[in-house]
């Protein structure tokens, strides 16, 4: 991990709880091994429902016990938050539109859980509004994301990724063993655009975001995201730029 995860007391302030849309019950004796073809079907279903990608986290025992989660296997469904909404000025309307999108995508998650339940796996949505669970810490355990200097969770699909998580009895998910994104921490050290752009001076003397000052989750500020090269140009282009810079330094 390249930057610390800050306390999340202020996350999701403007989101409403998701209603329960399950149509299928969990099996009494859930299976633990998934066939590749069923996993591919799940990935196809997610893609057809506007998911930008899927990651898989294997939780540490400590996390699972601390958060009282039944299974240590987590599937992360990622979606791209609409740039048209993120690029609006902060306002109540913007917060509402972000929540509308969250509700619409969240509803689909129950369909993914039902798909797994029909295939005899246990599957349960982790409540994204539960302050006792750090979804971002779970995301970090996927080895498929990093926390940026602006305290955002960066996946390769983009900086404007929202995500939902399902924990499941499936033991043989394709968990990544190593994180190849930690170079982002070095890149961020040479950038700092988010800190300079912040209208609230929400970064402390150690350049960590003060969640109580940041207005992202109360008023919908996205300034640090909008100015970030990872948002503007995408992960792959910035990685290429970084690699060139490193190669030049090495001569
Ligand atoms: S969301 Fe806005 S207030 Fe919060 S750190 Fe980013 S720029 Fe600053
Ligand atoms: S604006 Fe720069 S320093 Fe801030 S998160 Fe993005 S790359 Fe890192």
Describe the structure.
It comes from Methanobrevibacter smithii. Residues 179-208 form the 4Fe-4S ferredoxin-type domain. By secondary structure, the chain is α+β, with helices and mostly antiparallel strands. It has one domain (1-251). It is 39% helix and 12% strand. The chain has eleven helices and six strands. The protein has helices at 36-48, 61-67, 83-86, 92-118, 135-140, 183-189, 193-197, 216-219, 223-226, 229-232, 235-250; strands at residues 53-58, 73-80, 123-125, 145-147, 153-155, 161-168. The strands form two sheets. Strands 1-2-6-3 form a four-stranded antiparallel β-sheet. It has a two-stranded antiparallel sheet with strand order 4-5. The longest helix is centred in the middle third of the chain and has 27 residues, at 92-118. The two termini are 28 Å apart. Mean pLDDT is 91; it is low at 1-11. One iron/sulfur cluster (SF4) binds at residues 148-150, 187-188, 191-194, 227-230.
